Amino acid sequence: MGSDEIRHPVLVDTDALISVANTSLWPTAVGNLNLTTTNVCIHELKRHTREKSEYAPDGSRQKWIYDGSVAALEPFEGNANTAFTTINSVPRPHGPDAGEQSLEQELEQHPESYTFVVLMDQRGRESISRTFEERDQYGVAVAPSYLLYLLHKNGNCSKQEFCEACGELLEGEGWTSYSAIQAIWQEIPIDCSSYLDGSLLP
Amino acid sequence: MATSNDKIQFRGADEKRASQRLSEMRLGGINISELAREGLKEKLREVLSNEERVELHQQYLDGELDEGVAKVLIGDLLEDIEREREAVGKAETLSTDGVFQNE
């Protein structure tokens, strides 16, 4: 730890990890992306696996958080994996938004290290974007759906897989991810109409 | 049910007296019409379900819902999407060096 910590250009928070880890593209993300998070976010994921029940009903928010946390933790816990790294937050933030705060603090301390900061919370993204503007100009805060798009852009998944994973994200996160996914579909026109139910489409 | 008539009538004697009473207490009075308009907008947004918001947004994209109505009902969503689009647009201009394992 310390000087050995590897900072990849993509910094991801707890809720963003949970949302993407719940899609069928997570193994593809694990095999192709370099991601960095903080020890505070890892701690939050671990807390979810303790406090949320494995036996919560399918389709419930509890189950979504539990399953996503378990899946998200896995690649960070193997010592051999240098593609998924954890940075220690100093000082360590506490409280309900600790994960998000730890990202903001990390970015303030190392603005040159990151290009994409991925957060589920929209206000959190606005705050991170402001930090980028004040410190660095170069990076941007994006929603978790952008991680799925990066995989598609790099040729790591088919259009169908991308569209279906967006659908899974929409169904799992509901309203939270709707605007982010609509934005991707509108900004980078990807026709998902053959793969998704009409109610989920742009 | 609301009709195409601009005027919206409420059957609210107590609400009317309550607003008149508050208006009397204030030197400049209160703009009851403005409050009612804002209140109605807030309530309409509040009672909309997520599914209805999605449906309305789809109607807006299809040109079946005019901008004025869309702004009242899902204005915040339209702003959110616009902000997200800007972020995605900016993200597209940035380098992906170090993002992928196979580089």
Describe this structure in words.
The complex is a heterodimer of chains A (202) and B (103). Chain A is mostly helical and 202 residues long. Chain A contains 9 helices and 5 strands, in the order E-H-H-E-H-H-E-H-E-H-E-H-H-H. In chain A, the strands form 2 sheets. In chain A, strands 1-4-5 form a 3-stranded parallel sheet. In chain A, strands 2-3 form a two-stranded parallel sheet. The longest helix of chain A is centred in the middle third of the chain and has 17 residues, at 61-77. The termini of chain A are far apart. The relative contact order of chain A is 0.16. Chain B is mostly helical and 103 residues long. Chain B contains 4 helices and no strands. Chain B has helices spanning 13-25, 32-47, 50-61, 67-92. In chain B, helix 3 (50-61) packs across helix 4. The longest helix of chain B has 26 residues, at 67-92. The radius of gyration of chain B is 22 Å and the shape is elongated. Chains A and B meet through helix 6, strand 5, helix 7 and helix 9 of A and helix 3 and helix 4 of B.
List the helices and strands and how they pair.
The complex is a heterodimer of chains A (202) and B (103).
Chain A: E1 10-12, H1 14-21, H2 26-32, E2 35-38, H3 39-51, H4 61-77, E3 84-87, H5 98-109, E4 116-118, H6 122-135, E5 140-142, H7 145-153, H8 159-173, H9 175-187
Parallel strand pairs in A: 1-4, 2-3, 4-5
Helix pairs in contact in A: 1-4, 3-4, 5-6, 7-8, 8-9
Chain B: H1 13-25, H2 32-47, H3 50-61, H4 67-92
